[in-house]
Amino acid sequence: MSEPYPDFVARFYDTVYARVRDGVDNAWYLDQMSAADGAVLEVGVGTGRLFVEARRRGIDAWGIDRSRR
User: Fold this and answer.
1) pTM for the full model?
2) Cα 52–55–61 angle (5° rounding)?
3) Contacts for 34 with CB less than 8 Å, ≥ 6 apart
């Protein structure tokens, strides 16, 4: 995608995603981050739904995203 998400998509992304994929994806990604030997860079961190939880668990996570939202 060449342009960041429009504001209306970013605003509701986590709410919609939680109903569709959280139970499937979150555990897998967080397990991968935990298993990393060192710092983890999440490219396209978006709203931070994984990043915030990784930091809460003590994972040395860093994140970047093109979109300000």
Assistant:
1) 0.70
2) 100
3) 57, 59
Q: Report mean pLDDT in 10-residue bins for the chain, 69 residues.
A: 63 70 79 95 89 96 85
Q: Are 59 and 25 in contact (CB under 8 A)?
A: no
Q: How far apart are CA 26 and CA 65, in angstroms?
A: 18
Tokens encoding 18: 């939680």
CA dihedral 16, 18, 24, 30 (to 10 degrees): 120
H-helix or E-strand spanning residue 64: strand 61-64
Token pair of 8 as six digits: 């209306």
Cβ 41 vs Cβ 20: under 8 Å: no
Cα–Cα dist 9/11, whole Å: 5
